[in-house]
Design brief:
The chain is of the alpha+beta class and about 250 residues long. About 60% of the residues lie in helices and about 15% in strands. It has a five-stranded antiparallel sheet. A two-stranded antiparallel sheet has the order 6-7.
Length: about 250
């Protein structure tokens, strides 16, 4: 009886040993597969997940470059790699000479200027419109154009840059080109200041009407009020504001 039990135990041990040996390669294969998948994902992220670009702050008229890792084909950041200030001579000149009004209490905002990645070509953003003017270079005078213009037209520069800063802080960079165009032909500071108000009122009116057509009443109402700040008796702005009230109250 005892010999039979010993024989069965030895037999069971001999049978279990090959099973354990067979299990070890399976575990190793699973681990190798997991490691391989992780290495593939890491390689994929490092090759296709990096992005770099530039941002601009309208509150301080400063710029910075950046780079980060993100999940490829998405905007989900994994790791912010670095940020470095970008110095523009015109912006420094404007800040130093107090042409840019301060924004006390305002939260500093960083607007995208451009962004590029392996899956996306260098794409300019709205803030690039203002940066384009800041870097405009006069090859004849060997100086940045708007720095020279500001230095030569100090009385005109004060209202221009004040309005430019406000428009940028309102994130309406697309309204800037007609302001700079008007500056090129301006001569009288008082007339120029009134002209800037009129240009802005016209542009805000256009934006407000587009918003109204889209039934986007809150921004439309804000834009119509902005028009009326510049031109308090403007009929189309008053009518637009009334339409916002009436259309929004409809069931």
């Amino acid at each position: 009886m005892l010999e039979n039990k010993v024989f069965r135990v030895m037999s069971d041990t001999k049978l279990a040993e090959p099973a354990r040996r067979r299990g070890r390669p399976q575990v190793a294969a699973v681990l190798a597969s997991v490691v391989g998948v992780l290495l593939f994902l890491l390689t994929f992220v490092f090759l296709f997940g990096w992005a770099s670009g530039e941002e601009f702050s309208p509150q301080t008229f400063t710029s910075r470059s950046y780079s980060y890792l993100r999940i490829p084909m998405s905007h989900i950041q994994i790791w912010r790699l670095r940020e470095h200030p970008v110095k523009y001579e015109v912006a420094t000149y404007l800040r130093t000479n107090k042409y840019i009004p301060s924004a006390p209490g305002a939260t500093q905002r960083w607007d995208l200027v451009r962004c590029s990645s392996p899956t996306m070509l260098d794409q300019p953003a709205p803030a690039a419109i203002l940066v384009t003017y800041l870097v405009a270079y006069d090859s004849n005078s060997h100086v940045y154009f708007w720095k020279k213009w500001t230095r030569d037209h100090k009385k005109l520069a004060a209202p221009l840059w004040s309005v430019v800063a406000r428009v940028a802080r309102e994130n309406h960079y697309s309204l800037l080109p007609p302001l700079f165009d008007a500056a090129l032909v301006a001569s009288d500071p008082k007339v120029f200041a009134r002209q800037l108000d009129k240009i802005l009122a016209d542009e805000y009116q256009k934006l407000a009407e587009i918003r109204l057509q889209q039934n986007d009443f809150t921004p439309a109402r804000q834009l119509f009020r902005r028009v009326l700040e510049l031109d308090p008796k403007r009929p189309d702005a008053l009518r637009g504001l009334e339409r916002c009230r009436n259309d929004q109250s409809r069931p």
